[in-house]
Amino acid sequence: MDAKIDAKSALFQDDPDSPDAEPYINIFAARAKDKDNATLIKVAKIWHDPEVTKSVVDESDSTAKIVTGKSQADLQAALDKLQSELQQQHK
After folding, report:
1. Contacts of 65-69 spanning 24+ positions with Cβ under 8 A
2. Is the CB of residue 23 less than 8 Å from the CB of residue 78?
3. How many domains in the chain?
4. What is the SS3 assignment for 50?
5. Considering the domain boundaries, does residue 31 fall inside one?
6. 52: domain range?
7. Which of 1, 10, 39, 67 is least surrounded by Cβ atoms within 10 Å, i.e. has the fewest?
8. Does a structural domain hold residue 64?
9. How does pLDDT run across 3-45, given as a tens digit for each residue?
């Protein structure tokens, strides 16, 4: 049974522009030694294709938000912050 996502029935929606939403950003990441891996580069290019992006948003009933304008340094800082917070919780 296919369950269609219905944004109108969501109990809660994150503000995609809020720093609180940063831990939920999906990224493509690779080890430094794999930065030139042709397969990984191809997957990233496919993901960024406008038709794929539109399909992701459409299939999610517009609940998926495409994040732009975040540099590698911005994303690394968000990851570092999240890891630090999780480490503090486990002490």
Report:
1. 65/16, 67/16, 67/25
2. yes
3. 1
4. helix
5. yes
6. 19-89
7. 1
8. yes
9. 666 777 777 777 878 888 888 888 888 899 999 999 999 999 9
Q: Report the alpha-carbon distance of residue 45 to residue 52 in Å, rounded.
A: 10
Sign of the four-CA dihedral 55, 25, 27, 3? negative
Q: Which two tokens stand for residue 87?
A: 């480490």
Q: pLDDT band for 86, please (50, 70, 90 cuts).
A: very high
Rounded Cα–Cα distance for residues 88 and 90 (Å): 5
| Measured distance CA(7)–CA(13) in Å, rounded | 9
- Tokens at residue 60, please? 């999610």
Task: Note whether residue 7 is domain-resident.
Answer: no
User: Does 73 reside within a domain?
Assistant: yes
Neighbours of 81 (CB within 10 A): 13
Cα dihedral sign, 26-31-35-40: negative
